Amino acid sequence: MNKICPTIEDALAGIEDGMSVMIGGFGGAGAPIELIHALVDRYKATGSPGRLTVINNNAGNGAVGIAAMIYAGMVAKMVCSFPRSSDPKAFTDAYLAGKIALELVPQGTLAERIRAGGAGIPAFYTPSSFGTQVAEGKPVAEFDGRSYVQERWLKADVALIKAERADAKGNLTFRKAARNFSPLMAMAAATTIVQASRVVEPGEIDPEHVVTPGIFVDRVVEVPNPAQEEALLREGAK
To answer: How far is the C-alpha of 155 from the C-alpha of 214, rounded, in Å?
Structure first.
């Protein structure tokens, strides 16, 4: 099955109001900037998709990427572990104004909740957050004399991720730290949309080098020379 889309707009088709969207990236590493900004452009032009729940490690930086989504007013809730970046004005202003909700999740727990969603494990126990406000209202159990908090799996309607290489069948490789949450998110989303710096023919990626198998990928669009969040932030500061 050929999963290549001719344009970013085609790849993003079907994302609707109220959906949950996982977005890969650890800060700027692996952030699918072109997919994000194309979605922002669509929202500004049509008013949709809005009321999104966005799942990411952080809540945006400056005025690019997820921060651009928040500034546009299309995000109703953030699920993240690090809402305070070096320039968190977009999220901070929206949160203090009551325009956006926050579900704070410890970083390791966030990764494991996403992994559990992809693996079909509805819940697990972790000592992280026990005794804190983050654990309030969650079931607690004792194992070997230590208290653990029950955490539920985390799944999404859509995942937006950035890959280094992809083939027409959706097999992916990632560049160094850009790998971060993306393989887990590809497994945990009903629809996985990928921007790849380079699209190659099936068989050109050594099977031993495939990180995310094509079974977890639905759409791929080629984006050569993708923008880097940190570079855009520097340009905006000039």
So the answer is: 18
Three-state DSSP at 177 gives: helix
CA distance 58 to 51: 18
In terms of Cα–Cα distance, which of 181, 223, 187 is closest to 29?
Answer: 181
* C-alpha distances in Å from residue 93, one per residue of 35, 40, 83, 100, 230: 24, 19, 12, 9, 21
Q: What is the largest CA-CA distance in the chain?
A: 56
For the chain, give the mean pLDDT.
96
Q: Quote the DSSP letter at residue 224.
A: S
The model's pTM is 0.95
| Phi-psi map region of 169: left, alpha, beta (phi>0 left; psi -120 to 50 alpha) | alpha
Which structure tokens are listed for 67? 């921060």
Q: Tell me the residue type at 136.
A: E
Helix, strand or coil for residue 163?
A: strand
Tell me, what's the pLDDT at 234? 81
DSSP 49: S
Nearest to 20 by CA among 44, 63, 49, 46: 49
pLDDT on residue 193: 98
3-state secondary structure of 48: coil
Both structure tokens of 189: 């989303």
CA 25 → CA 98, 132, 179, 187, 216, distances in Å? 26, 27, 8, 15, 18
Position 109 pLDDT exceeds 70? yes
